[in-house]
Write a structure and sequence with these properties.
Strand content: 15-25%
Radius of gyration: 30 Å
Mean pLDDT: 83
Shape: globular
Distance between the termini: 57 Å
Number of strands: 24
Largest sheet: 8 strands, mixed
Structural class: alpha/beta
């Protein structure tokens, strides 16, 4: 039995998972063909870029010579129409966007029952923005999947991509909906880190991601430095204008470095992310240097590309745009040098480009990537547009990297236009001499242990019990305002707290770390995080949001934990480690309920002697919208675990805790 349409076929090999996102040259095509045979598909439809149609036919015939293959037609004619030989229809994407495509597709589906659909380079059929009109290509590919699934409940669908570039979260969501045949309205498309992680988790659930261990060496360290100081007047005129205008200027700056790294008798690819007004500059300069030049950009046929791919072809240098990044194979057989004029904006796009040469099947021992880097010294400070783009790639600060690889970006998710504006604003600040300073309060933990200093702090704030009781008795809003204006009290408390827990047999935050280290990929809220020790320990396995009155560590958000800056339903786990401190502690639990997704978990650690009636606490917690598991005693503490349900929290309830409620 084949898995039903829209399911995750866990019983199949990895290549038959709904998504197969593997590195370039990783054998995706052959693995897909094998998957069709594993499930015993009779009729398979393959949707792919035009450049790889023949490659699909070759792979099928080489692997299974008895199969029949038809290409670029909705009315295939089979050599042996009365036999049950496996059949493949290979369709380029252009077949889905002709005026008569819908009519022909409907007729094809009326005549045939499809068992397997492969959507190769699936990002060709994505939808960029929510609410926009679906392209004819996207609409008909989606229609092929949906209507085939209606006729055949056991339909298998496999989407594939060498590097799935996702520029907006709507694109990723549209790919998931295409493969599963179901709406995924729970996936939000606003560009936030939380939404990126949600999309990443869904993609991981539905597919596989594989990067082959390439044997050839990759040299990305060749980055000639090019002074663009003489061009600053032109760069200033661009100002906050288009990225294309700036790249046109910088292309002239980079040309000498590009020419320096071209050698006669050696093929090379010169890549430019932007084309208009740039390709002509590159072609003229390279031709004047005595090289034969070909183009692989939009609006140009494959003549130059095919000639360049010939070992003895007449083309020395191929100027290419993003058109070359997907669906083009064979370059690795003739070329081992890539020179990048204008970088792409995401690491996923860069990997896709680099993968044209650094891929299985290369006949070279070493692949060289040359990236000319422009810079200028402005008022004694180095400014570099190119380095800013490289930083963005290397630190993966894009939606693509967050959604595809689960990499949490540093800072905000910035579009290319916003990033370019940031770089130009930086230049303006350097020229005006403006200095931006971010002042943060200095927190020292532990505080000075000098006897006189300790005596002063205890006299001012009290010992641990006194501070503890004051924080429990006051509302969190008042405590937050007081600590925000004078964080020394917070530091004093945590210095004493650190000393006290040295004698504990069970340390709650360490128990939570153990619990989290046995799991992976969760979105965690640490309410009252203190020194953020939990986030430090588990951040490589989980995404942790840390909240406290004072932001001691990097990544901690200073706030009242009765109102944290999170969207609804984004957390998998909400943790309170000895942090129900404040007369309005029940509000913290309501806030956790808001932030948790349905069926997510709540963890509470508090001293056992703080509960006058543990059963009453458990029952009241249930009225706040949780299914409560049996509390467990851990040393001097009680550990309570609960699961969020659909119940609306009781509005006037106060939990029975430390003399409150009941």
């Amino acid at each position: 039995m084949r898995p039903p349409f829209g399911s995750n076929p866990g019983a199949l090999p990895a290549s038959a998972a709904p998504f197969n996102w593997s590195g370039m040259g990783a054998g995706k095509t052959l693995s897909a063909v094998l998957a069709t045979r594993v499930v015993g598909a009779g009729l398979t439809v393959i949707c792919c870029p035009n450049a790889v149609v023949d490659n699909w036919e070759t792979e099928v015939r080489n692997a299974f010579p008895h199969c029949e293959v038809a290409k670029k037609t909705w009315t295939p004619e089979w050599n042996h129409p009365l036999t049950n030989s496996p059949r493949y229809v290979v369709m380029n994407y252009e077949q889905f966007q002709q005026p008569t495509s819908e009519e022909k597709l409907v007729a094809f589906l009326d005549r045939n029952i499809v068992d397997f659909i492969v959507i190769d380079e699936i990002h060709y059929a994505k939808q960029r923005d929510a609410g926009t009109t679906m392209s004819r290509r996207k609409k008909l590919v989606q229609g092929l999947v949906l209507d085939s699934g209606k006729k055949n409940p056991e339909l298998c669908v496999l989407g594939m991509s060498g590097t799935p570039v996702i520029n907006t979260l709507q694109e990723g969501k549209s790919l998931i909906e295409m493969i599963t045949g179901h709406r995924h309205d729970d996936l939000e498309t606003k560009a936030t880190v939380q939404n990126c992680m949600r999309l990443y988790q869904r993609l991981v659930t539905l597919g596989t991601r594989y990067k082959p261990p390439y044997k050839m060496q990759l040299d990305e360290g060749t980055r000639p430095q090019v002074d663009c100081g003489p061009f600053l007047d032109e760069i200033r005129k661009v100002g906050r204008g288009s990225v294309l205008d700036l790249e046109r200027v910088l292309t002239r700056v980079r040309l000498p470095a590009i020419l320096e790294h071209l050698q006669h008798g050696e093929k090379a690819i010169v890549y430019t992310h932007y084309v208009d007004g740039i390709v002509d500059q590159l072609r003229e300069a390279i031709a004047d240097a005595g090289f034969s030049v070909g183009l692989c950009v939009g609006g140009v046929d494959d003549t130059a590309l095919d000639e360049f791919k010939q070992q003895d072809g007449t083309i020395d240098v191929l100027i290419a745009s993003s058109r070359i990044a997907t669906g083009v194979d064979g370059l690795q057989h003739v070329c081992n040098k890539l020179i990048i004029n204008a970088l792409p904006w995401t690491n996923a796009q860069y990997e896709q480009l680099r993968g044209r040469l650094w891929r299985q099947g290369s006949r070279f021992d070493k692949i060289t990537v040359v990236i000319p880097v422009t810079y200028a010294v402005v008022n004694g400070v180095r400014w570099s547009y190119c380095e800013s783009k490289l930083d963005r790639l290397e630190y993966k600060k894009s939606i693509a990297d967050a959604a595809v690889d689960g990499v949490v970006p540093e800072g905000n998710l910035r579009t290319p236009t916003q990033a370019q504006q940031d770089i130009m604003d930086w230049l303006s600040r350097l020229e005006s001499g403006e200095i931006q300073v971010v002042v943060r309060p200095e927190i020292k933990i532990p505080l000075s242990g000098e006897p006189s200093e300790v005596k002063r702090r205890v006299s001012t704030y009290g010992d641990f019990s006194r501070v503890n009781n004051r924080w429990y008795a006051s509302s969190s809003q008042l405590t937050h305002a007081r600590l925000a204006s004078n964080p020394e009290e917070w530091a004093h408390y945590h210095t004493l707290y650190r000393e006290l827990r040295e004698s504990w047999v069970v340390v709650p935050y360490k128990e939570e770390i153990r619990w989290l280290m046995a799991r992976e990929g969760l979105v965690v809220g640490d309410f009252g995080c203190g020194e953020a020790l939990l986030a430090q320990a588990v951040s490589e396995r989980h995404q942790v949001h840390s909240f406290d009155h004072v932001a001691l560590a990097e990544g901690v958000v200073a706030c009242d934990i009765a109102s944290v800056p999170l969207d609804d339903g984004v957390l998998d786990v909400a943790i309170f480690c000895l942090s129900l401190m404040g007369s309005n502690f029940t509000d913290y639990i309501r806030e956790a309920h808001r932030c948790l997704r349905l069926d997510a978990t709540l963890h509470i650690w508090e001293p056992a002697n703080y509960f006058e009636d543990l059963d009453a606490f458990r029952d009241s917690l249930g009225r706040l919208g949780f299914d409560v598991l049996t509390p467990s005693s851990e040393g001097a503490f009680v550990w309570i675990r609960a699961v969020k349900n659909t119940r609306v929290p009781a509005p006037a309830l106060t939990l029975p805790f430390r003399g409150h409620g009941g």
